[in-house]
Amino acid sequence: MRKSIASTPSILLIGASRGLGYAMAGEFVKRRWNVVGTVRGKTRTRLHELADRHPDQVAIESADITDPDQLAALRDRLVNHRFDVLFVNAGTANPHQDDTIATVSTQEFVHVMVTNALGPMRAIEALESLVAEDGLIGIMSSGQGSVAGNEKGGHELYRGSKAALNMFMRSYAARHAGERRSLLLMAPGWIRTDLGGPEAPYSVEETIPDIVSVVIGKRDRPGLEYLDRMGKTVPW
Ligand SMILES: NC(=O)c1ccc[n+]([C@@H]2O[C@H](COP(=O)([O-])OP(=O)(O)OC[C@H]3O[C@@H](n4cnc5c(N)ncnc54)[C@H](OP(=O)(O)O)[C@@H]3O)[C@@H](O)[C@H]2O)c1
């Protein structure tokens, strides 16, 4: 990737191999940003195809957000970079979404909680030093993480993991009160991906431009907001 010049903004995007993360990488490239996107492992992904098409703008790194050693090593490899945006997109859902919290296995509970709540927080703690002082740190949450919005129930473990994430991010924001950085929890809507499934009402193509516009627009407003892809505040 070409050396960052003052006029070329840059994003470190965690979890960009496929789905929303990959599509965000493509949209940032379209808007002439430099993108460092992460994948897991050594397998070739769609992000590699994007990097082949845009070698000047896209670089690929690797990290599993559930592994603190990998996050520390990523920070060390990128120590000479300053990013305008750090965005943690990586997330997961348990395969049996209809399980209640009473029936879900302990193993699934731990996997989803560690991936969706602890992992993103560890990622931003490990990588925050790479972000410009007036930059943005964002995490992909979900409308399902809204406690106030949970009137229908369902998806109990996934909801709980994103609500926990939101709470941890509020604690992070309280610890960093008064700083110039912008903090964002994004609720993207229900979108057709491997995680969202084929029944979701929205396509990646029709939602990603709005998601990216909200991320970019939030950079001018320090402090934490929980926003949907139209930029509207989601009730906590
Ligand atoms: N799609 C929706 O309707 C929807 C709605 C609300 C919120 N979200 C959130 O949006 C984010 C992306 O979802 P998606 O729909 O694009 O899902 P997806 O298609 O399943 O993609 C998930 C992405 O997260 C990565 N990932 C998973 N676990 C990881 C880990 N431990 N370390 C690093 N990367 C990891 C995956 O990498 P691999 O390729 O290596 O597995 C992949 O890049 C998630 O946080 C999800 O909760 C999605």
Strand and helix layout:
Blueprint: E1 10-14, H1 19-30, E2 34-39, H2 46-53, E3 58-62, H3 68-77, E4 83-88, H4 106-127, E5 131-140, H5 156-175, E6 182-187, H6 204-218, E7 223-228
Parallel strand pairs: 1-2, 1-4, 2-3, 4-5, 5-6, 6-7
NADP nicotinamide-adenine-dinucleotide phosphate binds at residues 15, 17-21, 39-40, 64-66, 89-92, 115, 119, 140, 142, 188, 190-191, 193-196, 200.
Fraction of residues in H or I helices: 25-40%
Q: Provide the spatial order of strands within the biggest beta sheet.
A: 3-2-1-4-5-6-7
Task: Report the top-level CATH class.
Answer: Alpha Beta
Average per-residue pLDDT, rounded, comes to 96
Uncertain parts: none
The number of helical elements comes to 6
The topology string of helices and strands comes to: EHEHEHEHEHEHE
CATH topology: Rossmann fold
- Backbone shape: globular
